[in-house]
């Protein structure tokens, strides 16, 4: 079972925080197909949030095909995430190392690069947030 | 779907001063709505009109599609003063509620108080502030309302009691699906708890709508001051700030700025609400079709 936590005031909608945490747990294998997600009431009792927010998060995960709601039983994990292969990860990491080297040669420091990465990630994944 | 609460053209005047003027607002069924605004903005007046305690000078209030005066048994109201009698025992408050309310659920009330560890033979005057609020909330929930209206329910509570009261309220929503409208002037407490926002400012409705949509629809932009005017001309600006060569703008626009010298970051509920309260002439109101959408 997953235990949710909240970063209040982060500007990320509460339902999206729950969605991200489920996705993260699926990637790490902390949640596997067949696992039950906590009921809205269980999440409410733990986090003091609006049950509608929990249901909205579960609807979003259901729309993505990650979980499925079974009336009267609960919401269950349908499939897992994070199927990236080891070789893909190694290759992507090498590309990133090269990019950081180029950045340093161009005079960027750590903070510049972080800001740049954050901006690009923000732009590319904007549809997820909006 | 019929809204739980719908006010149209609502106005209220005390002597020659308008406390509320031309207020039209809807809260969809099943929502937990926050009513926010500065002190004296008309929050309490709006709540009293919403539960039929006051008759409006202009306009009307409908609850689940019917005039509010015909829907009284579907509404519970928790006033800021927590209407409990200090000399009564908790048990007597429950008996009192049973006499007055046809839909009274005494068993649920007793269960709730037992879960909270509040003794039924304790006198109300000897309870802590948090416990008193819990008893008042228990009495309100025992009426099995479809619409629960609370005026500053957290105002005089310590942080732990606030969390306990809010959790109790959220659990009731999870169990019954009732619609909640609560007023507060502490916006930061509402994040994650409320999903609908109504901002009243200077006796008028300034913002009304789904909180996630509202917050996601705004951005804080930072960039070079000399290009700020050109950018501001292209989108609704809620607030402007910055110093020297750097400008910041909170805008009602979710698209990324085209000019690469400008960066955008998401805003939270409190920043958005404060920006609107500081700009009372700006409004963010839904199109009529959105008011009843879920």
Automatic annotation (TrEMBL), chain A:
It holds the Pfam family GntR. InterPro entries: Tscrpt_reg_HTH_GntR, WH-like_DNA-bd_sf, WH_DNA-bd_sf. GO terms for molecular function: DNA binding; DNA-binding transcription factor activity. Residues 12-80 form the HTH gntR-type domain. Keywords: DNA-binding, Transcription, Transcription regulation. Transmembrane segments: none annotated. The keyword Electron transport does not apply. The keyword Transcription applies. It comes from the Bacteria. This is GntR family transcriptional regulator. It comes from Streptosporangium minutum.
């Amino acid at each position: 079972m997953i235990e949710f936590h909240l970063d209040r005031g982060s500007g990320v909608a509460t339902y999206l925080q729950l969605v991200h945490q489920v996705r993260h747990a699926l990637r790490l294998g902390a949640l596997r197909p067949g696992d039950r997600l906590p009921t809205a009431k269980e999440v409410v009792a733990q986090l003091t949030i609006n049950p509608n927010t929990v249901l909205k998060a579960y609807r979003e995960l259901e729309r993505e095909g990650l979980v499925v709601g079974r009336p009267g039983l609960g919401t269950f994990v349908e499939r897992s995430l994070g199927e990236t292969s080891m070789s893909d990860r190694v290759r992507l990491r090498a590309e990133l190392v090269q990019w950081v080297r180029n950045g340093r040669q161009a005079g960027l420091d750590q903070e510049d690069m972080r800001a740049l990465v954050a901006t690009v990630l923000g732009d590319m994944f904007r549809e997820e947030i909006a | 779907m019929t809204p739980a609460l719908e006010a149209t053209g609502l106005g209220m005047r005390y002597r020659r001063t308008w406390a509320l003027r031309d207020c039209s607002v809807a809260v969809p069924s099943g929502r937990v709505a926050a009513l926010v605004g500065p002190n004296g903005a008309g929050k309490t007046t709006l709540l009293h009109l919403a539960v039929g305690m006051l008759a409006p000078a202009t306009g009307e209030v409908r609850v689940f599609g019917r005039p509010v005066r015909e829907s009284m048994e579907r509404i519970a109201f928790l006033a800021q003063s927590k209407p409990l009698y200090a000399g009564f025992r908790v048990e007597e408050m429950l008996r009192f509620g049973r006499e007055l309310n046809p839909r009274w659920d005494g068993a649920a009330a007793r269960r709730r108080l037992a879960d909270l560890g509040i003794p039924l033979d304790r006198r109300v005057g000897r309870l802590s502030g948090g416990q008193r609020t819990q008893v008042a909330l228990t009495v309100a929930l025992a009426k099995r309302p479809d619409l629960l209206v609370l005026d500053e329910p957290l105002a005089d509570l310590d942080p732990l009691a606030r969390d306990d009261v809010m959790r109790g309220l959220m659990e009731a929503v999870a169990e019954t699906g009732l619609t909640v409208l609560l007023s507060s002037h502490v916006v930061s407490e509402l994040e994650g708890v409320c999903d609908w926002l109504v901002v009243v400012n200077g006796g008028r409705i300034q913002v009304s709508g789904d909180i996630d949509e509202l917050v996601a629809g705004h951005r804080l932009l930072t960039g070079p001051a000399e290009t700020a005017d050109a950018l501001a001309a292209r989108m609704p600006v809620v607030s402007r700030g910055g110093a020297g060569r750097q400008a910041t703008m909170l805008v009602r626009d979710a698209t990324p700025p085209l000019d690469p010298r400008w960066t955008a970051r998401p805003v939270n509920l409190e920043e958005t609400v404060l920006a609107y309260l500081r700009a009372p002439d700006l409004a963010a109101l839904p199109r009529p079709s959105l008011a009843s959408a879920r």
